[in-house]
Specification:
single chain; alpha+beta; 1 helix
């Protein structure tokens, strides 16, 4: 997830929230949130299993 955050930042994408711990359908996960060019909120998540 840290590599994804670094890639987003290198391409000028502002991260709104994260990485933060969340609870998903499979249990604990880390998520990062940013906006696409149309303003939609996008979540990228990673389960540590």
């Amino acid at each position: 997830l840290s590599e994804i955050c670094a890639s987003l930042a290198a391409n000028g994408v502002a991260i709104e929230v994260g990485p933060v711990e969340r609870i998903g359908a499979r249990g604990p996960m880390m998520s990062v949130y940013f906006r696409d060019p149309d303003g939609n909120l996008v979540e990228i998540s990673w389960y540590n299993r």
